[in-house]
Design brief:
This protein is of the alpha/beta class. 46% of the residues lie in helices and 21% in strands. The protein is built from 13 helices and ten strands. The two termini are 31 Å apart.
Length: 290
């Protein structure tokens, strides 16, 4: 099957690369700030008149963001029982999530069901079984790049929403640093797990095309990529390896392509302040109504 033939999640050395990026970029902190700002009110609206809540996380990784959002849901609605289905293709990251749950007493009150598969694998499983469990809150954080068909993925997961439910998609912002880098060098970069780069522009166009009601919230974030311009910096190389989805940036492209990417990163994807280069990694939180 196509999904099994290509890597659509983090395994092996790419898990370490991903974790290094998260530590350096502040991305999870930015996402969680947005979650704390907007989700309590959303949770109240979703839960109106309901005696329990069912949550679905798609592409949940190591659970760092999920755990905080579930804790936020519990504190917003302390008397409401919660179930959480987790869809994640990486066994290593799922183990990290389970370890996190084991350390947090509040999360142990939640009934978890683990699905170690990609989002399209879960869709196939649901369709084959005909067991269409519905959910009050579904979130897809930084995973929409890896699906084969954006439109059918949104349509399927939206169909799993209960009355008053919300589907939350968090994705890189249109015209941000990632969008500029990956669309400018599409031919060189969109050759692995990501074959078609998508930002919030593609997601919103798809949502509008399906006639769905939504709101968009901008998540502001930048991080320091100064070391990426020092070829002898190990941390700089690890960061640019992740940003270009390569194992070895300096061996992966011609000198001209490398120079072009570095110039683009400095001059079109970033701002300079006090001699440091800060990459624009704004995100978009798109909340889609049932």
């Amino acid at each position: 099957m196509a999904e099994e033939a290509k890597q659509t999640c983090y395994e092996g050395s790419s898990v370490q690369s991903f974790q290094f990026y998260l530590e350096h970029s502040g991305e999870h902190e930015a996402i969680l700030k947005c979650a704390h700002d907007i989700l309590p009110g959303e949770f109240q609206r979703i839960a109106a008149g309901k005696s329990s809540l069912d949550v679905l996380g798609v592409g949940s990784g190591g659970g760092e963001v999920d755990a905080q959002m579930l804790t936020l849901l519990q504190s917003t609605l302390p008397a409401v029982p919660i179930t959480a289905d987790i869809v994640e293709g990486s066994a290593a990251l799922t183990d990290n999530f389970k370890a996190l749950v084991a350390k947090m007493a509040t999360l142990q009150k939640i009934q978890f069901v683990w699905h170690i598969m990609g989002s399209e694998g879960y869709e196939k499983q649901v369709r084959v079984k005909g067991d269409m469990k519905k959910f009050d809150f579904i979130h897809m954080i930084q995973m929409i790049y890896y699906v084969d068909n954006l439109s059918s993925t949104i349509k399927f997961y939206h169909s799993l929403l209960k009355n008053n439910g919300k589907l939350m998609i968090i994705v890189e912002a249109a015209d941000g640093g990632w969008d500029t880098l990956w669309k400018t060098y599409k031919k060189e970069l969109c050759v692995g797990a990501i074959t078609e780069y998508r930002s919030s522009a593609e997601v919103i166009a798809c949502v509008k095309n399906q006639g769905l009601k939504y709101e968009e919230h901008v998540i502001s974030n930048t991080f320091d990529i100064t070391e990426c311009f020092n070829p002898s910096s190990k941390n700089g190389e690890r960061l640019i390896n992740f940003m270009t989805a390569q194992d070895h940036f300096y061996q992966s492209f011609t000198p001209e392509i490398r120079a072009g990417m570095l110039d683009l990163l400095r001059n079109k994807c970033s701002t300079e302040k006090d001699g440091k280069v800060f990459f624009n990694s704004n995100l978009s939180c798109i909340l889609i109504h049932a």
